[in-house]
Write a structure and sequence with these properties.
Length: 417
């Protein structure tokens, strides 16, 4: 366990934050530090065909150690961290034998990780937690996943008695800004299917996610002296306000859960002459997703009727789709992950992702890719933490998946003889 801890601590201390405002791949030069370290480490633990391409995508191979044919499978995680919170100078702290009480992250800043607010902490009483010092995020999203994959591969290299087929691993940049799978070479990866190790709580197993789109609405007003504005002024700020009032008031992130979709307005800027709203649309159901986009269009049409033509413009861009439609035809890959969890005494928690994943885009690129827990909680902020025991279990699940795939292939091979 200490070896895994040391590896994780080494990874999180490297600042690999991505940048949505950059047009390069990777979006930040500092992500190269993590990519190069991983390529070096994969060679050191004994993997083959280690490569790192011009976009900082890292791939490697664990060769098969069985004589029969086994489907090539893969495990994927991302090494960038969220642009929402600083990842510079991460100073992780270990809380051994957690007692179920408040954890003082930073006394000077009055930063407290409390089970009164974060009730999931109580799931891990008696375990070892890795937390922040209250000034940065931790980076368990998704350096926990990377740690678990590398640790599992190292174990398989050293454990010749565990039979497995060819396994591919892949580490990507820029997942946090929605581009992690954009330049992922599925053909080069060469797997029949893969698993992203990028979930949260111990036991999470996900094969469906939101359909997603971004929304930009622009309001064009006319500014005149307010004392002489009657019949002349058109206030872009008030048009934006009217737009917001016409959206369903209960279909927002803070009032929805499970498979409920939402509209999320995250940016609003404006003056009389010009206002702009930025937001996102999310829904697991494809028809409901399309209906949400149509509602935006209808609202804009009505506003242009009320305030005058060409006053309001909008742009909707689809971002990714629900991978369920690509996973359902190959549900045995979910069943394998579920059995692997049960075999290592982890209770599977099958649930939809209320967000996106590299696995969604990869599934639509021809690589079916469910998502498995990495163990962390409270991602993208200073209250992030990860139980070490959950990371150990994730590594065990990866090893067991490799073993089960080879075992099942062996049974099929015997029947053919």
């Amino acid at each position: 366990m200490q070896h895994l801890i040391d590896r994780f601590l080494r990874y999180v201390k490297i600042d690999s934050q991505s940048d949505p405002n950059s047009n390069t791949t990777p979006s930040t030069q500092k992500q190269w530090d993590m990519a190069r370290l991983l390529a070096k480490e994969l060679k050191e633990i004994g993997l083959e065909d280690v490569s790192i391409d011009e976009g900082a995508y890292v791939m490697a191979t664990l060769p098969s150690n069985v004589g029969h044919e086994v489907p090539v499978i893969g495990f994927i995680s991302h090494f960038d961290t969220s642009p929402d919170y600083t990842a510079a100078n991460v100073k992780p702290k270990l809380i051994e034998n957690y007692n179920g009480k408040d954890i003082i992250l930073n006394a000077e800043k009055n930063m407290v990780l409390s089970p009164d607010y974060f009730q999931e902490l109580l799931l891990y009483k008696g375990q070892t937690l890795i937390v922040t010092d209250g000034t940065t995020l931790l980076g368990a999203d998704d350096k926990a996943g990377i740690t678990e994959i590398v640790t599992a591969m190292e174990y398989l290299v050293q454990s010749k008695h565990i039979k497995h087929g060819k396994v591919r691993v892949g580490f990507t940049p820029d997942e946090e800004i929605g581009r992690g799978a954009h330049h992922f070479d599925v053909e080069k990866f060469g797997a029949a299917w893969a698993y992203t190790i990028d979930g949260s709580q111990l036991g999470e197993l996900e094969f469906e996610n939101f359909n997603a789109a971004s929304v930009k609405v622009t309001f064009k007003g006319t500014s005149v002296h307010p004392g002489y504005a009657k019949g002349k002024m058109v206030n872009a700020v008030l048009m934006a306000h009217k737009f917001l009032s016409l959206l369903p008031q209960n279909e927002i992130p803070e009032r929805t859960e499970n498979r409920e979709g939402f509209f999320h307005i995250h940016t609003l800027n404006g003056q009389v002459e010009h206002a702009e709203i930025l937001g996102i649309i999310r829904d697991h159901n494809k028809d409901a997703f399309e209906a949400r986009k149509e509602l935006i269009e209808h609202i804009i049409t009505d506003l242009n009727t009320e305030f005058g033509p060409e006053r309001v413009y909008f742009e909707i861009k689809d971002q990714y789709y629900n991978m369920r439609e690509k996973i359902e035809p190959v549900m045995h890959i979910v069943d394998i992950a579920k059995k692997a969890m049960e075999d290592v005494e982890v209770k599977p928690i099958v649930k939809p992702i209320r967000g996106g994943t590299d696995g969604s885009q990869l599934s639509f690129k021809g690589l079916p890719c469910p998502n498995i827990f990495a163990g962390g909680h409270n991602f993208h902020g200073p209250y992030e933490f990860v139980p070490v025991e959950s990371m150990v279990k994730a590594s065990e699940v990866i090893v067991k998946i490799c073993e089960l795939v080879a075992l099942e292939a062996g049974k099929k091979s015997s029947k053919k003889r």
